[in-house]
Design brief:
By secondary structure, this protein is mainly α. Helix 3 runs antiparallel to helix 4. The protein has helices spanning 18-26, 39-53, 60-73, 78-85, 90-93, 111-115.
């Protein structure tokens, strides 16, 4: 969660959409953790990928914003979106509720079948 100064005891349980569960289930694992790498390693890999692809001004946290926006596009209510995003207040979700596009633009995303193939 976005609270770097208060990490201990700050755990939040969130719902995972079926697509996320399918991807997690398909990932090879040697330990209980889903992503067996440090936050620094993930941050560095994300930064390198953005540089390699020529993407400017994209931050890892922007992916969360994109995901919550997608939930509202798909018709999720505030409580349902909050159950996935972990937001605790309506005020923090207000910026996502003025979405003009509706529907699931990734409904026929061919890569989901490829990624979750065992």
């Amino acid at each position: 969660m976005k609270n770097p100064g208060d990490k201990v005891g700050n755990d939040v349980w969130c719902e995972l959409p079926p697509e996320a569960l399918a991807i997690i289930a398909a990932m090879p694992r040697t330990e209980a953790r889903i992503f067996p790498c440090s936050t620094d390693a993930i941050s560095a890999a994300f930064t390198r990928a953005c540089a390699f692809l020529g993407i400017v001004d994209l931050h890892f946290h922007d992916l969360r914003h994109c995901g919550v926006t997608r939930l509202f596009e798909m018709g999720r209510t505030v409580p349902l979106a909050a159950s996935v995003s972990g937001h605790r207040s309506w005020q923090s979700l207000q910026r996502y509720t003025h979405i003009r596009q509706t529907g699931d633009r990734f409904a026929k995303w061919l890569w989901l079948a490829v990624v979750t193939k065992s």
